[in-house]
Amino acid sequence: MGWKDIVAENGIAVIWVPKEYTKSGSFIAKCPEFPNGAIIICVLLDEDEIEFVALHEIGHLVTGKSLAKVNALLKHLEHCKNEANANRFLLRKVAPRFVDENEYNKEWATPDRLCEFLGLRNTFENIQIAQEEINFAFWGDYD
Q1: How many domains is the chain built from?
Q2: How far is the C-alpha of 124 from the C-alpha of 71, rounded, in Å?
Q3: Per-residue model confidence as pLDDT tens digits over 63-116
């Protein structure tokens, strides 16, 4: 299922912003104006970047919690958790294609390369999540 299908299925609004926008993308939590939330994407991104940014931002909406609901002292921890959840969502959606396009070559389809391909920092957590998702893609352990 592509990111456009996920957006449609979940009723998430997509807002395209001009080149002056300083980020690749962001999200708007569920609110009266956007009852299912919204994702914001810069129009200057190429097609692959749009997909990766969109999946990451969708991940915030379908797996995370609004930071406004979190105690002020826990905002940083919750933000990190939300980022990890959004990255997992992105990695889960892209890992099967990444493994397939690399002909199921375990020596090439590594978590470092997957993170680099997606523009994710090679943090311990991202590498760990990427490895889990690559393993799922190799062994077909998805639900």
Answers
A1: 2
A2: 26
A3: 755 444 434 444 544 557 778 888 889 999 999 999 999 888 888 899 999 999
Of 63, 81, 109, which residue constitutes the final position of a domain?
A: 63
Of 63, 85, 104, which residue sits at a domain end?
63
What are the start-end ranges of the E strands in 20-106? 25-28, 38-42
Q: What is the DSSP letter of 109?
A: S
Same-domain check for residues 119 and 81: yes
Range of the domain at 98: 71-143
Q: Which two tokens stand for residue 114?
A: 């997957």
Strand-pairing partners, residue 14, are: 39
Instruction: Strand 13-17: give its sheet, edge to edge.
Output: 13-17, 38-42, 25-28
Is the Cβ–Cβ distance between 71 and 20 less than 8 Å? no
